[in-house]
Design a protein that fits this description.
Oligomer: homodimer
Strand content of chain A: 15-25%
CATH topology of the largest domain in chain A: Rossmann fold
Strand order of the largest sheet of chain A: 3-2-1-4-5-6-18-19
Number of domains of chain A: 2
Number of strands of chain A: 19
Largest sheet of chain A: 8 strands, mixed
Radius of gyration of chain A: 22 Å
Largest interface: A-B, 40 and 40 residues
Distance between the termini of chain A: 39 Å
CATH superfamily of the largest domain in chain A: NAD(P)-binding Rossmann-like Domain
């Protein structure tokens, strides 16, 4: 069996699906690995590094490949070069990739989406959304510390004391918690808010102070955007405004993949911050939690710098690839039996992550999306 | 008595000598304060902020001023507008400011240099070189963390562990120790070297590992550059090379104000680092500890980013001004008696920091510099 590691095609994507140091586990399981020339360059891994651990490096990795791995979804023309029954493993946010899903079905490719790894204990080592969110959260806090023209920590000196920065984090998922932890490491005073009151304990565990808003609990246990009425969203913004105004740094992380991010902070709220403050919107790619943020750009709003994240994990390509690669290896090992490809759809992780198989879209929400379910 | 706070003239200087919150101590001592319009803008203090605490704000602060305070030395034309017997307090590195020193003497201005504050316990609250070096050290570590495309801390996740970054700091003075402390806060593994073996304990106290080189102790207790032979410098570079090569981040801080910084790291040594590594040269303004570093620029050397600092404290204008202002207030209070200017040259701090007085250059090393001492 042969696994192909693609060089990423999307602009700005600097990660690679597998790093050289991750191949020994696969090679030991009896598989061969082909790496497309240059695949690891941006993540600091050369073709020779891959060769040194026993991979083949070539310009054409698709011919003869049983499994094709990448970070971003393969593009439509690559899909055309992949044979029937071949397996692909990558991020694959189906709502944004409808034409590709149709192509994968048509080509009878068996595609797995790393976006769909269930959030169960057993699946944790494969949870690429979490691992990449962690990278984004770290990066967000570091970017804020570098852009803010004051100290994060308290400084006590012979000449006097300089107060620490106040950081407000909105959204306390994996990215938010990592941003809190990193800002705390640097000595900032950190407040955080999340609609899920249950996250108060997690916020406290990484050193943050949970902001309690005077709002009724959200009905139901479901997702964010679905539950929030416009009235509640407005009230939430009103109640958050004084916390935003008091912060030197605001980091927003409230994004659900595949959905538009909720606007938590309006331009007026940003303008209410002190001049020289910094806003980091990690949800900018999904439309933004902060009105006016632009992915991949820094804009000034009344003296406040608003940094819009764009593929933030890719800004730390080496460690992001290291974590993603671990996730991918763990998924691949689920598919192997005595060195051969063996897809057991009785496995809840494989069944949950499979999008297309044998000419069918097997992921039900995606089928609904295609309008092919009554 | 009236103190004038100047708006800084030098390109890139964003600090201000006194912030509004520092004025009450002076006003309580019975002095008046005039602030040049716009002086605090870059440090986040508006004219109204100064007015609110009781200062006057005007376009002409020199008329009627008894003491003129600034961060950078005043320029030659300002000196021409200042009357006989007026006091100036600012940084004043005399070796770089010979024409100004002559002008100050000629104008019979009494000038004090914040560069000359002695390093005694009593003078600590006035030690502006230390306070600004602390700002530079913090900034250096944060810049490195933001430029490095990997994590500073160790990350342990369900999918595996990512190793922490290794940071090497050369020079363990105030800036170096602050860089070590900040990198440690962020979880990096930190090594540090200084020619003064006595600094080993200070390095350890902020969490760094002191690098012992196999070199004979430096003869004498004096300054750095004077003692170091070229042979010893070469040997030191040879012995440092493997430490540099092993580091993800190199931060150099070996600078003595007014002297050219020693070249600790050659281009070959930088090229020996892994691609993607980051070098921060905080001594770039003094000629640089790293061959090829350029103040105010980032250059790539064989895949390694070399960041050359340029007036680094000014990159954090608010806290840098806060600390500098504290230092200046403490110096000014030495000059006051019952609300009037009273210069007691029996005070060792005032005598040490005075450069010109009553038409004479009273700072002996500066006189030597002018070639006016046999």
């Amino acid at each position: 069996m042969r696994i192909a590691v693609l060089r990423e095609r999307r602009t700005g994507e600097r990660r690679v699906a597998l790093l050289p140091e991750q191949l020994p586990r696969l090679l030991a399981a009896g598989v061969e690995v082909s790496v497309e020339s240059g695949a690891g360059n941006e993540a600091g891994a050369t073709d020779d590094d891959y060769r040194a651990v026993g991979a083949q490096v070539s310009e054409d990795v698709l011919t003869g490949a049983d499994v094709v791995v990448s970070v971003q979804p393969i593009n439509l023309s690559t899909a055309r070069q992949i044979g029937e029954g071949v397996v692909t493993v990558s991020f694959l946010p189906t709502a944004e990739e409808v034409p590709l899903v149709r192509r994968l079905r048509e080509r009878r490719i068996t595609s797995f989406s790393m976006d769909l790894v269930p959030r169960t204990a057993r699946a944790q080592p494969m949870d690429a959304l979490s691992s990449q969110s962690m990278v984004a959260g770290y990066r967000g806090a570091i970017v804020a510390a570098e852009r803010l023209q004051r100290f994060f920590p308290l400084f006590m000196t012979a000449a006097g004391t300089v107060r620490p920065a106040t950081v407000l984090v909105l959204g306390a998922g994996v990215a938010g918690l990592q941003a809190i932890a990193t800002a705390r490491r640097l000595g900032a005073v950190v407040e955080a808010y999340d609609v899920r009151e249950s996250s108060a304990e997690e916020v406290a565990s990484v050193g943050g102070k949970f902001v309690q808003l005077d709002l009724p609990p959200l009905a139901g246990a479901g997702g964010y955007a679905r539950e929030m009425t416009e009235e509640r969203a407005t009230r939430q913004r009103e109640l958050l405004a004084p916390h935003v105004a008091a912060a030197d740094v605001l980091i927003t992380t409230a994004a659900v993949p595949g959905r538009t991010a909720p606007v938590l902070v309006t331009t007026d709220m940003v303008a209410g911050m002190r001049a020289g403050s910094v806003v980091v919107d990690l949800a900018a790619d999904q439309g933004g939690n902060v009105e006016g943020s632009i992915p991949g750009h820094e804009v000034m709003v009344e003296g406040v710098l608003v940094w819009g994240g764009s593929n933030v994990p890719s800004q730390l390509p080496r460690p992001a690839s290291e974590l993603y690669g671990h996730n991918v290896v763990n998924v691949l090992l689920l598919m192997l039996r005595v060195g051969a490809l063996h897809l057991d759809f009785g496995d809840d992780i494989l069944s949950a992550t499979c999008v297309t198989h044998a000419g069918e879209v097997v992921h039900r929400p995606t089928l609904e999306l295609l309008g092919e379910v009554g």
